[in-house]
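Forwarding the complex inputs:
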Amino acid sequence: MEKVYSEQAKTCEVIQAGKATVDRLLQFSRTLHLVEYKDFTFEANLN
Amino acid sequence: MELQIDDSALVQDYISGDERALETLIHRHNQRITSFIYSKVMDRDAAEDIFQDTFIKVIKTLKKGNYSEEGKFLPWVMRIAHNLIIDYFRKNKRMPKFEGGEDFNIFSVIGDDRPNIERQLIKDQIDSDLNLLIDELPDDQREVLIMRIYKDMSFKEISESTGVSINTALGRMRYALINLRKIIQKNNIVLTNY
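Prediction (whole assembly, two chains):
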């Protein structure tokens, strides 16, 4: 079993998401507002 | 010397409204999560998209207050990424890409190989019956079977997710199948489409 899984270890390229993606996520977070009404939660993105 | 705030404190800060805490979390785990995704999908654009979708889920869950802190922020995010990777492959399987070429024949892609309505009804019935049978299994066996068959996880991933050894996960899968067969035989259930 160990042998089988060790074969998958060949792909090990280190990359990271770009600045644009990170900025988009931070912007999304800043503008996301959740409004609760009774049992519902509404999402509002005030972008 | 700069002190590093641990993830759980940053998560609490973010939930309390500190947006910079999220920025720190993203920067801290960006490389590890994106590389993990890339190692599976082998496509940089897809890896970035999945990374983005992963953190959108993280953000929504944290803001909704649905995250239970157990000091395992990174494994939790990796699990979300893993599920999105599975969705990515499922989606691509449903929408195969065809490259045009001299030998390309449009009729090879527009054929309708879906089962007819009768077979579809039978298939739906079988799926429904199978779900009921799976519900009859002991919890540990059902868990492994669902992860392996429906979530397409490897036994290594199952063992990591459930906290048991690979051999135990394999054993549970084996007993799950044996028990399913027993239930099927005992109740004279026919699970074939054709």
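The CA atoms of residues 27 and 42 of chain A lie 19 Å apart.
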